Fold this sequence. Notes:
The protein is mostly helical. The protein folds into 2 domains: 15-101 and 199-216, Orthogonal Bundle (Rna Polymerase Sigma Factor, Chain: A), CATH 1.10.1740; 123-190, Winged helix-like DNA-binding domain superfamily/Winged helix DNA-binding domain (Arc Repressor Mutant, subunit A). It is 65% helix and 0% strand. Helix 2 packs across helix 10 (203-216), helix 3 crosses helix 4 and helix 8 (161-168) crosses helix 9 (172-190). The longest helix has 21 residues, at 79-99. Mean pLDDT is 78; it is low at 1-5 and 100-120. This is RNA polymerase sigma factor.
Amino acid sequence: MLLSLPPMPYTPLSDLEVIQRVLAGEKQLFELLMRRYNQRLYRAGMAVLGEASATEEAMQISWVKAYEHLASFASRASFATWLTRILLNECLMGRRRQHRFVGLDDDGTGMPAGARAADVPTPVHLALNNELRIALEQAVQALPTNYRSVFILREVEGLSVAETAHTLGLSEANVKVRLLRAREQLRTQLEDFAPQHAFPYLGPRCDRMVRLVLARLQPVA
Length: 221
């Protein structure tokens, strides 16, 4: 059984160097690849499956397949691309297996499940929307008070320019200027927001995946 704890220290080895050394007999180095790419696989799997436990099962299977077929890896593509394709294929196969057992009227609506899929937000979309909402709220709170009050009345409460001006004792021209500047500041603050912050797969979760996969591996032929 290949099992290494605590986590391996950082190494500057490239993916190709790690693969070559694993194939040469240093099987424990496969853990380095898992720790590098668990995050990528989790996000890719969640994008397809939208459910954590199904994604983690697909990850385990994909890592085992990657290990078993490591000798067939062609360095024309990056290891990350090759690995992600294995994961996505496994996710799609998992979805097809699930669909075999889903009836056309599985929730009593009289409509095929697939016909409703586009109308229902996936867990991935809900999570990303929630993360964006939190980021926006924090950015609005960071605005100067004179900009924040205009932005909230106009963009959140939906007041007209005239109503906002009357409420705050400002001219309509002043409201327009402050709203423009608030939007510019928000745009600048939110430029750093990106989905790469979503679905972290670090620490204990990554450790657990490494243990589960290593326990399933057999020596490379």
